[in-house]
Amino acid sequence: MYYRLKLINYFDVWGNKKDGWDVNDACIEWDDVWTCDLDDKTLLKILKNTDFLQKNVRINQIDFEWVNPEICEISARKNHYPLGRLEIIDQKEDD
Fold this sequence. Notes:
Elements: E1 2-16, E2 20-35, H1 40-49, E3 62-68, E4 71-76, E5 82-92
Antiparallel strand pairs: 1-2, 1-5, 3-4, 4-5
């Protein structure tokens, strides 16, 4: 199975770790990346290759939380700062 992903960038976030975070504004970074693997390491690689995350970010610094079968919230592990979300917007069978 191949999955087409869309990345929503939470570029304006208010709040703090203690009181919680609120996403004030967001935008679509891209909606045309296909992958056959949805594990955390693959998602991290995609985010680095599309320049959403810096190349030096490590897997233990990011949390990927699937809140439903089509939406994965992305946050910084250290303070739970919301970075964005990935959405599965299309699927196709292997050829």
